[in-house]
Amino acid sequence: MVEAASAIILAIIFLALLGERLEGTFWRRSIAFGLVFAATGILVMLNPVELMNGVRTDPRNAVVALSAALGGPVCALITAIPMIALRLHFGGVGAVPGAAGIASAAICSSLLWYVWTNYLGREASQRYILYHSLSAAVVPALVIGVMTAVPWEIFLKSASLFVPVNFAAVLLMGQLVIREHQRRWAMAANNEAQARLQATANNAPGVLFQIARSEDGQLDLPYISDGARRILDMDPEDFVEDPAKLARLISRKDGEKLRLVLEDSAETLEPWAFEAQCMHPKGRILWLRAVAEPRGCRHDEIVWDGFAYDISDQKRSERMKNDFISTVSHELRTPLTAIHGALGLVAAGGAGQLSAKGNSLVSIAYANSARLVRLINDILDIERIESGRMHFDIRPLSIRPLLEAAVDSLSAYAAEHEISIKIEETAPGLVCLADPDRLSQAFLNLISNAVKFSPPAGTVRIRIAQRAGRARIYVSDEGPGIPQEFHTRIFTKFERANFSDNQKVGGTGLGLSITKAIIEHLNGEIDFRSTEGGGTIFFVDLPGFPAMQQFGAERDNRKLASA
Fold first, then answer.
1. 68-92 pLDDT tens trace
2. In whole numbers, what is the pLDDT of the chain averaged over residues?
3. What percent of the chain has pLDDT over 90?
4. Which residues contact 217 (CB under 8 A, 6 or more apart)?
5. Which pLDDT belongs to residue 53?
6. Which residue among 44, 216, 400, 459 has its CA within the 20 to 30 Å range from the CA of 498?
7. How far apart are CA 388 and CA 319, in angstroms?
8. What CA–CA distances, in Å, run from 259 to 214, 321, 533?
9. How much of the chain is in helix, strand and coil states, percent to nearest 5?
10. C-alpha 63: how far from its chain's center?
11. Cβ atoms within 10 A of the Cβ of 450, count?
12. Which of 515, 510, 481 lies closest to 498, judged by CA?
């Protein structure tokens, strides 16, 4: 029995290796499997166990059942024919019953194969092998029992050995094959998924990448897709082997910014987005935008899964648009300023007394020319900020005097709308780092917006506070609030909300966009909270300044005010 079991195991291992080459070819697979099992069955029958004189047994039916279970009826037929012939050649009183037992095992297992795979349409499983084990153990034993002329004592003694042996052989060997098949199916599915993912990554309109930061802060590029070859004309493997090559493509300033972005993301585990100007190996300038999301790994390692894409065309379009707007705005501002000044003189009576109708027309033209001048100035401001041509003089500033100056300059505007403005200070003498002119411009925009949207007799509240080492300024109104659908567009250029009460408000739609750009250039943040009908609160966070230098900041502010 040891020799028989060894022969079956060797056959199973050989077929497992052979099966990968014969997948999908039914006839070749059936013939090859049938020949292997036929050779195995003959070898098993040549090494039987002799129970007594003239009575021998072996696990031949297990071989036939496995042949049908794994290869189907054709395989079972090829296996059974030489085994039946060999059993008849051996002769003896058990020749015909033995041959019939082999045939019954082949027929029963073939029917089971057909029902399971064709009728039920199922894949081979552990239950499938169990059914074949029962078939190989019971059916041939019943056939031999009916046909044999051997005394029942001898038959039962023989059956007590070959029935459990056939059952165990089919069950154990079948499980081995099923597990091998499942392993190969899993590997094939995994390889297919990997190939599909790789093809998707390589054909994406950008570069997929991973950045890994080890516990000691070392940065590596464990993966970069084939898009690097298409966009940067370099092999992805070059970046994986030497991540410094990627760093050398961007400027030192952008590289330092990226390092700070990664450090901040590693601490907060927040996604990040980054734009950088790159030098293509062929000498042309590229703009790349990268977005990534971090995830923690073992041993305090951080991995960013990200995507980078070429935005050079977008940047060129933006530059052309900004250049066009800047040129047109500059060309318009000079004549408009002259028109506005002339209309002001006429409205003031410098060209003589006008009729009531003429006065009305001039007032309308004067107001609209002023509106056009403000629009052009706003456009030029936003263009200068975005192009980096607006100068920022960062210095320590006391916040309250700056806010009081802004409120004073808007006092007539607030009185016209019957609005009162109140300043509350929970952190007296708070100092921030900012540009006084630009910060004043941002405050004027926020406060004038609050006044504009407040109802008559309403109050605009300004609160100065300290939060996490930064200066925070709140500007709240009692207006209608900002519609929910407009929240994501509130800082977009030329965007203005539509209110349900059809409230008519002026403005260019650039004030909040300019304010946001100014605050961000001052290394600050701006955000808001609003509910429809419940008013709006804008809050600005600015870099704080050590209290010990507050006195010098206030002195500088006083000098600035006196000048």
1. 888 889 989 998 999 899 888 888 7
2. 81
3. 15
4. none
5. 55
6. 459
7. 12
8. 14, 31, 44
9. 60, 15, 20
10. 52
11. 27
12. 481
What are 476's two structure tokens? 């709240």
224-276 pLDDT per residue, tens: 888 888 888 888 888 788 877 777 888 888 888 888 888 888 888 889 888 88
- In whole angstroms, give the CA distance from residue 244 to residue 536: 48
Longest dimension (CA), the chain: 144
Cα–Cα distance, 46 to 378 (Å, whole number): 100
Strands (DSSP E) found in 231-310: 272-279, 285-296, 302-310
Residue 72 three-state SS: coil
- For the segment 453-462, the average pLDDT, to the nearest whole number, is 92
260 near 250, Cβ under 8 Å? no
Contact residues for 459 (Cβ-Cβ < 8 A; gap 6+): 419, 420, 421, 422, 478
Alpha-carbon gap, residue 419 to 411, rounded angstroms: 9
Are 288 and 278 in contact by the 8 Å Cβ rule? The answer is: yes
What does the block give as tokens for 346?
A: 């006429």
pLDDT value, residue 54: 53
Strand order in the sheet with 420-425: 420-425, 459-467, 470-476, 536-543, 525-530
- Which amino acid appears at position 138 of this protein? V
Which residues contact residue 172 at a Cβ distance below 8 angstroms, ignoring those fewer than 6 apart? none
The helix-helix angle for 152-203 and 2-22 (nearest 10°) equals: 30
On whether the CB atoms of residues 429 and 390 are closer than 8 A, the answer is no
159-211 pLDDT, tens digit per residue, is: 777 788 788 888 877 777 777 777 777 777 788 887 877 777 777 788 888 88
| 494 contact partners, CB below 8 Å, separation of at least 6 | 508, 509, 510
